[in-house]
Amino acid sequence: MQRRMGEAVARVARRVNEVVEAREDALDLADCKLVAFPAGIYKAMRSVAEGIHRISLANNELRALAGRFATTFSQLRELNLEGNLLHRLPEELGSLLHLRAINLARNKFRRFPEPLAAAPALESIDLEGNEIAEVPVEVLASMASLRSLNLRDNPVCPDMRLLVRPLVPFELLLSPEGDVPEA
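^ thats the sequence. predicted structure below, dont judge the formating
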């Protein structure tokens, strides 16, 4: 157990160093057994944070994301948080002016993460495999850039399906009617 944790820490440090040294625009910390975004990364990446456009934190064990994440990586265009334990997002995520795609599939959301409504360039949201039963139609209708919302494998109630489709001007992906998981 101790050895595997050490390997995970070394992998994170190596990936961060590679991005900083090569001044890459993507940070991949997927599958690193993270339970939180390491605070040391903010300092280590201070010189290149503005140039980071894509971050993957997929398949970790994150339960929360700090507001500092959004303010540090303010030029983010794509964020992959698939396969974590998140149930809410910080308000600061709405201040990401360039964020176009966010993957929140297979997390613990019971409600649509409202901070996303404030992200002006957001085109694609993947919330497949969460626990969302209600869709905030007014909030979604106000998202001018939204092109696609994936809510497959969520317990979206049947009447909601009928209400939502004609009111939203984007692609809404839902599970087939008899194929909805129990809440």
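The mean pLDDT is 89.
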